UniProtKB/TrEMBL annotation:
The keyword NAD applies. This is L-glutamate gamma-semialdehyde dehydrogenase. It comes from Hydrobacter penzbergensis. Pfam families: Aldedh. The keyword Lipoprotein does not apply. Keywords: NAD, Oxidoreductase, Proline metabolism. InterPro entries: Ald_DH/histidinol_DH, Ald_DH_C, Ald_DH_CS_CYS, Ald_DH_CS_GLU, Ald_DH_N, Aldehyde_DH_dom, P5CDH/ALDH4A1, Proline_metab_enzyme. Its EC number is 1.2.1.88. Residues 56-512 form the Aldehyde dehydrogenase domain. Belongs to the aldehyde dehydrogenase family. GO terms for molecular function: L-glutamate gamma-semialdehyde dehydrogenase activity; proline dehydrogenase activity. The active site is at E293. It is an enzyme of class 1 (oxidoreductase).
Amino acid sequence: MSLGYFSYPMPVNEPVLSYAPGSNEKNALKKALADLKKKELDIPMYIGGKAIKTGKKIAIHPPHEIAHTLGHFHLGEEKHVKQAIDAALKAKEDWAAMSWENRAHIFLKAADLLATKYRYQMNACTMLGQSKNAYQAEIDSACELIDFLRFNVHFLSEIYKQQPISGPGMHNRLEWRPLEGFVLAVTPFNFTAIGGNLPTSAAMCGNVVVWKPANTQIYSAQIFMRILKEAGLPDGVINLIYVDGPTLGKVCFSHRDFAGVHFTGSTGVFNSMWKTIGENIPKYRTYPRIVGETGGKDFVIAHKSADVDAVVTALARGAFEFQGQKCSAASRAYLPSNIAEQVKTKLVAAIQSMKMGSVEDFSNFINAVIDEKAFNNIARYIDNAKKDKKAKILVGGKYDKKHGYFIEPTVIETTDPKYASLCEEIFGPVLTIYTYDADEFEAALDLVDSTSPYALTGSILSQDRAAVELATNKLRHAAGNFYINDKPTGAVVGQQPFGGARASGTNDKAGSMLNLYRWLSARTIKETFNPPVSYGYPFMQES
Ligand SMILES: NC(=O)c1ccc[n+]([C@@H]2O[C@H](COP(=O)([O-])OP(=O)(O)OC[C@H]3O[C@@H](n4cnc5c(N)ncnc54)[C@H](O)[C@@H]3O)[C@@H](O)[C@H]2O)c1
Ligand SMILES: N[C@@H](CCC=O)C(=O)O
């Protein structure tokens, strides 16, 4: 029961801590890293609030130090997917009936726990488990996840306020119901914040959720689950399971109560999910919501008027932060012939100054890529470029997996505007450069628009306003997040709602009101105060 309209104003973004030398936060984070390194965690699944251990233990190693074991997670099987769905459906009625303010406060409390008590432990888990440096972990597993929780509470409050008008003698209202059934959240390795946001955004709306993270993100996912429990999330509202993708899909996508999937990951996996769901439509109680944010082949195009240092920085940070493993990472650059040589020279120098190694040494800008499969895939693109006459390696190109999955930040230059590494998502520290005739800017924009099937992020760097306008118009559908004089990464919740279209997903803009609508199913209720008591129209009283 709610006895008032309670207010959840727009929050401010969580401040990003600097981890400067000698700072309290740096000391606290170093301690959290050391503490985690001293123990091996035994990580259960969480089904109906219970910790489930199957005994099938899978080891977790830091990608940058594969000889070290951080702990083990307990692998589940088909019966655990069924148990998770049953636990979710059992929790559904009470959760959906809970007043909004009580639901909201669980997520606001989780945000506060994350911002204070668990901040360093969470960042340390992300650093060790996903090989993210301190700054990248801070903007992901602390700030972005805290922002997702706080801003979504505000956005949902604004949605609940949206109501229709009422004519005389009646009242109309919209009830923002949760979906009928359970929501499946399937999350990627690269952002702890995305892992936390996909299940909680749906749950906040009154839904119950089965959450399956990538195996390579379980080390940080488990701590978020423990935070939610400590914040008071009732048992069964979010059920965290570790199973392989096909097993998950087999059970969830053939279940009558499957109400929607909240996915972030590769385009291929999303396409296969969509196909299976389509084939199973007659089995479901209701049409499921299918929300997926998928791959990218994100561009930077510089105009001949661009500031050289701004282009170099946009590329160095945009392409290589977190080893290029952001769906938003710059992976193709189009340089005008008048400044191309200057940009390349400065970019090579910047990259040569980047240190690579363990996350425990805070001076390392580059750490390891996530696992051996990713390492081998990225190395294949580099090897092909080494062999190919149409390409050459400008800088980097070496890789080594003896101690960890290390790949040097690499720039490929090609003379072929349709070269494979300009078209395909690599998801690693590889940037491909193509130089265009500085006087053919409009043709270069057409090339950017037509080279890859993706449309996630992109940047234009220019000091010429007409060129900015032309690029903004011609590239309207080439990116869901378009940046002017900036790198194409680093969207902030509440500031740059995030997502792309074409092969990059359904563009439901994580961290915005648009996303939350997908987890709600409105019911319109009209109440008439003085109902008519005869069926005739006034004109029928005379012939
Ligand atoms: N657009 C965005 O907002 C965004 C954000 C982050 C990552 N990404 C994309 O994610 C990808 C990298 O992440 P990843 O390597 O974890 O992606 P992935 O597609 O390999 O895995 C994503 C999730 O899907 C699961 N999965 C894999 N196969 C499955 C199957 N057959 N059925 C059901 N689930 C299955 C994985 O276990 C994981 O939990 C890149 O393509 C990147 O561009 C996109
Ligand atoms: N929101 C992040 C990207 C998330 C995808 O991996 C950014 O804007 O860089």
